[in-house]
Amino acid sequence: TTTLLPSDHNTVDFSFSRIKTEQHSDPDIFSIIKSLQDNPSNPHFVLQDDILFRILSSSDTDPHSRVPVLPKSLISSMLHTYHDHPLSGHFGVHRTLARIRTQFWWPNMRRSVQNYVASCAQCVRHNIVRTKPDGHLKSISPPSAVFQVVHMDFWGPVRTSSSGNRYVIILTDNLSKYVIADALPDCTAKSAAQFLIDKFILFHGVPERLITDNGTHFNNHLLHAITTSMNIAHAFSISYHPQTNGQVERFNATFASQIAKYCDPDRADWDVYLPSIVYAYNTSVHSTTKFTPYQLAFG
């Protein structure tokens, strides 16, 4: 069964009708609207159905070539929705700004987002500072297709959730950075094998290469039989060089930080937020690729 997110994460009305009403009550925006009504020729703004849009590009095919100008009255609630909501993930300035820019525009957007994220108590409390460790192993050759090389790892154990889960198993595509994850009560070989087949292979096909750590949950007869029969090259990272499996190591760090921002104090409901955080990660622009993982994985 699907567990709904707690009711304190309500959606806000950002419909065109609401934006139109608020725009006409915003003195700065309304002055631009009046100017366009007198002289429609403006390289930066356009009126459409009496709603003010910011022109971002001249493309007729780009769905984000123009976005509505957000009134001041909606900026605070919009920042809360696009940063704090579980489907947005409590991410930093880069990801939050990239997500907003496809939907809205207002003057000094970057500064607004920077100030909001900097003042977010949950982010200040739980964000981690990443530093690259010395002695990185040489990176593996980049794959030529999505889901060709995948990384898999367990995160946990953590406090047992109300549903009995203590671990998260995470699979990351090397090329697109797309993540698939599931909450589990254990980290056994059987659970790992079942996740690989049921959640990945049956949906996305057989990868050419699987990279995991050398723990018994991955280095075992069951997974060896599966990878051998499907002609999957299974590579192991070693405990003193975990960077070999750095794709999931980085997401594990992100996941631990993000999920802590939504959980109740004893974290009994942490697995309720897992699908939303994975969604937020997959639909946010990745700093390495400059695209969202979803875009690269599925077009």
Please tell me about this protein's structure.
There is one protein chain. With 299 residues, the protein is α/β, with parallel strands linked by helices. The chain folds into 2 domains: 111 residues, Endonuclease III, domain 1 (Orthogonal Bundle), CATH 1.10.340.70; 150 residues, Ribonuclease H-like superfamily/Ribonuclease H (Nucleotidyltransferase, domain 5). Helix content is 38%, strand content 13%. It has a 5-stranded mixed sheet, sandwiched between helices. The longest helix has 16 residues. The radius of gyration is 22 Å and the shape is elongated. About 3% of the residues have low confidence. This is Integrase catalytic domain-containing protein. It holds the Pfam family rve. GO terms for molecular function: nucleic acid binding. It comes from Rotaria socialis.
Radius of gyration: 22 Å
Arithmetic mean of pLDDT: 83
What is the number of helices?
A: 11
Q: Into which percent range does the helicity of residues fall?
A: 25-40%
